[in-house]
Every structure is written in C-alpha cells, then in structure tokens.
Amino acid sequence: MPPLHNPPLAGPPTRRPSVQDRLVELIMALDLDAGDALPAEQELMRSLGVSRNSVREALKSLQALGIVDIRHGYGTYVGAPGLRSLAPGLLFHTRLAVKREDHRALRDIVEVRALLEGGLIRRAAVQLTDDHLDRLDRELDALAADGAEGRAGHDRRFHELLYEPLENAVVLQLIALFWDVYRQLEHEIGKPETDHEQVVRLHRRVVEALRDRDPGRAAEAIESHFADILARIDRLGGGGRERDAD
Fold first, then answer.
1. 187: helix, coil or strand?
2. Are 4 and 47 in contact (CB under 8 A)?
3. Which of 35, 55, 182, 218 could disulfide-link 209, Cβ–Cβ 3.0 to 4.6 Å?
4. What mean pLDDT comes out for the span 112-117?
C-alpha cells in the first residue's frame, strides 16, 4: 500500500471539504478497489489530522451511502458497487405519496423503468444468444405453470435474464431497486388482482420479437407490457385496489 498522504481535493475552492469528503479522496488517492481494506483508524487520524470520533462519524456516513463496509472485528473495506442505499429514501417518499392516495409516485417509477427497458431491449434483440432465449422461455413456462402466486420470482428473473448479456451492472441494479420498492409497497396498497394469462402473454410477445431479432417489435412489446402496468396504477388511483409491477 502506498504511503498515506493528505490528497488534493476536488471541488470548488470556496467549499471547505468535510472529513467525509477527504476520506473519499484518500480512497481514490490510494487506488483502492471494492473489497480492499482501508488503512487502520489510527493511520486515518494521522493522515487527515482529525480526531477518532471525526473519523468514525465520517465512516458511518460513508457506510450509509454504500461507499465503505464496516466489518466489526475485522476492519473497514471499500464497499461493493450498488444502488441499494437509494432504496430507503425512494420507498419512504413513495409510501408518503401513497398514504395521501397520490399514486403519481408509483407511476413515475414505472415510467422511468419503461424508458430504461425500452432502450435496452433494442440492444438485447441483437445480443441475446439462443441459449438465453431458451432460458427466457423456460422462465415463462414456469411463470405460466406456477400461476399468480409464483409470479413475482419468475417475473423478476425474466427481466434480469433479458439484460444480463448486456453486462451493465448499473442497469441490473436499477431494475432491482425499482422492483424492491414496488414489492415492499404491496403491504401498503394490497396484492395485485390481475389477469395472469395476460401477464404471461405480454411477456411471450417480448420473447417472440427477440427470437425474430426485431428490435423495433421488441421495443413495442415492452412498451405494451408497461402500458398494461400503468393502466393498473391509473385504476388504482381511481379508487381500485389493483396494481402490479411485473
């Protein structure tokens, strides 16, 4: 590990960097990667010229952001890439909106996900292998066989399989983030009451377009899928109890 030093700080010169900012810059200067151990607490105190409490508070703040991982009894490590730290805030504000019977927040999340997948599916149409398409078919067969009760797991896995070959970790994390928020909201607004056969049929249209290597038709199929979800949210906002986040 290179010797510790107090690295130059990015950002406007008028802003006084916090200990948290300086710790981030130190991690960058030391060229640490996810999973690498940070220097010991005493070394951090000497390098930054701050107290033990200041270092500990800064590390706790960075842990909440997913930047570091504090393992009690072992040390502190650079955190693994992830967006899960965004979930509590997104869930909280969406729950507040739902409590006010304002379902726009739910609609906003679905619209963002629809835009995201609408662009990605065009790439998937030319990059998915026959093996991946076969796996998608098997997931849909399981979705159809297990019925509405088993839908969540198969549906989630289906969307993961769509984009795994693109090798974009941020995409998969974003989809998982939106999915987790929706599923937790089921406790607030009730279980979905949807036509299971319609759900399966919309997903099969996506796979059919992918097998034909037709990016435009694949995008249309994904758009129809999310239009169906948005329609359920609109009915929910009108006083119904129906919703889904397939």
1. helix
2. yes
3. 218
4. 93
Using CB atoms within 10 Å of the CB of residue 80, give its burial: 0 to 12 exposed, 13 to 18 middle, 19+ buried.
exposed
C-alpha span between 48 and 44 (Å, rounded): 6
Element (H, E) at 203: helix 196-211
* Residue 200 confidence (pLDDT): 92
CA dist 155 to 60, 109, 159, 202, Å? Answer: 36, 17, 7, 11
The whole-number pLDDT of residue 238 equals: 56
Least confident of 25-34, 94-103, 108-117: 94-103
DSSP conformation class of 11: S
One DSSP character per residue, 33-91 reads -TTPBPPPHHHHHHHHT--HHHHHHHHHHHHHTTSEEEETTTEEEEPPS--GGGHHHHH
3-class secondary structure for 104-158? Answer: HHHHHHHHHHHHHHHHHHHHHHHHCCHHHHHHHHHHHHHHHHHCHHHHHHHHHHH
Cα 29 from Cα 23, distance rounded (Å): 10
Confidence of residue 240 (pLDDT cuts 50, 70, 90): very low
Give the predicted TM-score (pTM) of the model: 0.68
Amino acid at 17: P
pLDDT score recorded for residue 94: 83
> The tokens of 129 are what?
């292998």
What pLDDT digit, counting tens, does each position of 37-69 carry? 999 999 999 999 999 999 999 999 998 888 899
214: enclosing H helix or E strand: none
CA distance 19 to 21: 5
Can you say how many angstroms the Cα of residue 28 is from the centroid of all Cα atoms in its chain? 24
